[in-house]
Amino acid sequence: MQPNKIFEIKHLKKSFKNLEVLKDISFSVEKGKVYTIIGPSGGGKSTFLRCMNLMETPTDGEIYFEGKEIFGPVTKTNPLTKKETTKSKVLLKDNELNQMREKVGMVFQSFNLFSNKTVLENVTTGLTALKHETKEEADKEAMKLLKTVGVSDKANEYPIKLSGGQKQRVAIARSLAMNPDVILFDEPTSALDPEMVKGVLGVIKELASAGMTMVIVTHEMNFAKDVSDEVFFIDGGYIVEQGSPEEIFATPKQDRTRRFLEAIL
Amino acid sequence: MLFLSYTLDFGPVLNATIEFMWGVLVTLGFSLGTVIFGTILGFAVSMGKLSRNKVISAIASFYISFLRGTPLLIQLYILAYGIPILFSVNINIYISGLIALSLNSSAYVAEIFRSGIQAVDQGQIEGARSIGLSSKYTMRHIIFPQALKNILPAIGNELVTVVKESSVVSLIGIGDITRVADLVKADTLKVFEALIYAALLYYIITTVLSQLIRIGERKLNKYAAK
């Protein structure tokens, strides 16, 4: 596999009890590129994203992260019946999984900022706990990041005092603080008031032009058109169509893609 | 009328006030000890119940359901009379009493901790794990501080409950308020007065404690609202 591949995902499946959410998804993420995933609600977009950093454990398939297999089939022989069974499993130990997640940032629809910590502490927690920085170093770096995303004036507030847009900016700063190789965005603007959306999308665009690798699940089609190198349309647990933004938005090949775009644009 | 044939006389019972005050000290001591040990043990049991390890979780669940599903009095008798026979040892009744109350309370406290922890928004865990924080760090620095807001008032209420429940230790001969009332009752034959005196003492203790808890809760909320 090529060295510039961050993720390589093959035939991923995920079921919740009897509900098969992801049926067969293969996807690769190259360094420096921006991928957007669009599609109807319940189609498996978020589940797929959450499988990438193993926030959800997939049911089957293979995931490689930076060349290392992190999820894949393991064959076991039953000592009594000598029967071999193959089942896909997480191939990382707990601490390896945590180290992987340091490199894979995630920004959630519902922000998930630590409510018992100030804005500044939300960003410094990872730096002091995982990057072993002193409080002074961490504070300095966090302030720089908060300035980048435009909320440095709120550093000493608790998240409850912030607007949705401000919260999402802090969440982006928290994830940037870990200096990740890729950031996964799970509908980052879906819980925001309309007037907040543009600002947050602006921050994400700036990251894109700075060369950050990103996978973004979104309902903002104009944004997807603008920012993506590649667009994926996921529905019914499959990637129905993938291509450049021009291909997907101007000349979609699949009927389902066309109908989806007509319904929302 | 029938009840008028009895004349209330609190004199003899009031003469035993010093004994009753000793009873108050014993009741308070047992209650405080129970809540301290019960909370430590209850916390451990709740961690067991929340554990990903199915065996540990099942053991903790059984522990909780057994202690909540059997009478405290039977638990006390098993510890005070059953265990000493089984191992042919003498156990000080104060120790048996404290262990029985603490074990019983720990089962209730474990459920307080568990529900308090589970009431914290799942997104808090996801936020923490997504940047690579370990589950232990997440529990200690993110989840637990938020859960305390739900847990502390409930632990306070548990203290009030324990004050009342602790009266069972009188039955193995420990001189708490109830035991003193029993003795005074036998001594003075003023059954009604002795029991009313005891009831009033319990009521004063639980009312004062409830007020203290309410004040504490208000302070906690002020702190949590920031």
What is the H/E order of chain A? EEEHEEEHEHHHEHEHEEHH
Classified in CATH, the superfamily of chain B is MetI-like
Structural class of chain A: alpha/beta
Strand content of chain A: 25-35%
**Biggest sheet character of chain A:** 6 strands, mixed
Mean pLDDT of chain B: 92
Give the ordered list of helices and strands of chain B.
Answer: HHHHHHHHH
The first-to-last residue Cα distance of chain B is 62 Å
Helix percent band of chain A: 25-40%
Backbone structural class of chain B: mainly alpha
Helix content range of the residues of chain B, please? over 70%
Count of helical regions of chain A: 9
- The Rg value of chain B, from CA coordinates, equals 22 Å
Q: What is the fold named in CATH at topology level of chain B? A: MetI-like fold
- At the first level of CATH, what is the class of chain B? Mainly Alpha
- Kindly, what is the distance between the CA atoms of the first and last residues of chain A, rounded to a whole number of angstroms? 38 Å
Strand content of chain B: under 5%
Largest sheet of chain B: none
Rg of chain A (C-alpha, Å): 19 Å
Largest interface: A-B, 30 and 19 residues
Record field, number of beta strands of chain A: 11
Topology:
The complex is a heterodimer of chains A (265) and B (226).
Chain A: E1 5-16, E2 19-30, E3 34-38, H1 45-52, E4 60-65, E5 68-77, E6 84-90, H2 94-103, E7 104-107, H3 119-129, H4 135-149, H5 164-177, E8 182-186, H6 194-209, E9 213-217, H7 221-227, E10 230-235, E11 238-243, H8 245-250, H9 255-264
Parallel strand pairs in A: 3-9, 3-10, 7-8, 8-9
Antiparallel strand pairs in A: 1-2, 1-4, 4-5, 5-6, 10-11
Helix pairs in contact in A: 3-4, 3-5, 4-5, 5-6
Chain B: H1 11-14, H2 17-50, H3 54-69, H4 72-86, H5 93-118, H6 122-130, H7 135-165, H8 177-188, H9 191-224
Helix pairs in contact in B: 2-3, 2-5, 2-7, 2-8, 3-5, 4-5, 5-7, 6-7, 7-9, 8-9
